[in-house]
Design a protein that fits this description.
Length: 68
């Protein structure tokens, strides 16, 4: 599944290893790059402080946001 709506991220059970989230970006030569997002202790701390995954994405904290 792909999405352009970050709110979809908030419903993903990312601590279940069967669910995998990847970010897609381009390098400075235009090559498409895929990177798996793995939850870190910092992400868990932010979540405990009320940050949703969609908010982390919009703020550029998990990757996949264009640098324009």
């Amino acid at each position: 599944m792909t999405t352009q709506n970050p709110l979809v991220l908030d419903g993903l059970p990312l601590q279940d290893d069967r669910v995998r989230l990847f970010t897609v970006d381009r390098d400075n030569r235009g090559t498409t790059c895929f990177k798996r997002f793995l939850i870190t202790d910092e992400h868990k701390k932010m979540a405990a402080d009320g940050w949703t995954l969609s908010r982390m994405w919009v703020n550029g904290l998990i990757g996949g946001v264009p640098n324009v």
